[in-house]
């Protein structure tokens, strides 16, 4: 039995050694491998997102270049020296809808600017002002509106009619102030 007990002892020691190696070496290594695998998967997803973002940026840059090459793009800017054409266009729109217009160029002395800063003061009825804005939007020039202020100015007119009491008619007149920029080519 001595041989048998030595064999059993050797087996038990071998089994315990195997369990110790498994417990102290292999399991921590597996845990570390799982942690590294999770980190790699996270970085992979981040890189895929960045790749999609780069592809999206490339597509957008291609679209921008196509737009820049189109004649409509350049016609929406004012060519330096042709500011008068733009002003005449705006005045025609105001005249078309019987709107009183006061146009002021704010940065007129600064010719080297990339844009003209405008202050457009309008007076007219609501429908005409809306039609003016719609026409202004449809024009070929790109006008970047910074602010719009709309206010009411009710005027009372006395009319001499056959009534004993003078009737008062209310005429609604709105004031519209537009602060905008128009860019040069």
Molecular structure report:
This protein has 185 residues and is an alpha+beta fold. It has 4 helices and 4 strands. It has helices at 2-69, 71-75, 83-96, 126-138; strands at 100-105, 115-124, 143-159, 167-183. The chain has a 4-stranded antiparallel sheet, with helices on one face. The N and C termini lie far apart (104 Å). The relative contact order is 0.11. The model is unreliable at 161-170 (pLDDT under 50).
Helix content: 40-55%
Flag low-confidence runs: 161-170
Write down how many β-strands occur, each being a DSSP E stretch of 2 or more residues. Answer: 4
User: Main sheet?
Assistant: 4 strands, antiparallel
Please tally the helical runs, counting DSSP H or I stretches of 4 or more residues.
4
- Taken in chain order, the helices and strands follow as HHHEEHEE
Name the strands of the widest sheet in spatial order.
1-2-4-3
How would you state the average pLDDT, rounded? 81
Task: Determine Rg (CA atoms, Å).
Answer: 39 Å
End-to-end separation: 104 Å
**Overall 3D shape:** rod-shaped
Strand content: 25-35%
* Structure classification: alpha+beta
């Amino acid at each position: 039995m001595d041989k048998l007990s030595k064999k059993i002892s050797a087996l038990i020691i071998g089994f315990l050694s195997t369990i110790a190696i498994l417990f102290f070496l292999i399991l921590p290594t597996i845990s570390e491998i799982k942690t590294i695998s999770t980190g790699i998967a996270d970085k992979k997803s981040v890189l895929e997102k960045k790749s999609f973002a780069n592809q999206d940026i490339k597509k957008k840059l291609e679209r921008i270049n196509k737009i820049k090459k189109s004649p409509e793009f350049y016609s929406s800017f004012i060519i330096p020296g042709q500011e008068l054409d733009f002003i005449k266009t705006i005045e025609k729109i105001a005249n078309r809808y019987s709107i009183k217009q006061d146009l002021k160029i704010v940065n007129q002395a600064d010719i080297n600017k990339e844009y003209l800063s405008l202050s457009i003061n309008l007076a007219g009825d609501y429908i005409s002002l809306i039609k003016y804005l719609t026409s202004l939007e449809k024009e070929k020039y790109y006008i970047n509106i910074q602010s719009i202020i709309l206010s009411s100015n009710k005027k009372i007119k006395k009319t001499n009619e056959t009534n004993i009491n003078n009737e008062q008619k209310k005429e609604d007149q709105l004031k519209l102030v537009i602060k905008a920029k128009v860019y040069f080519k």
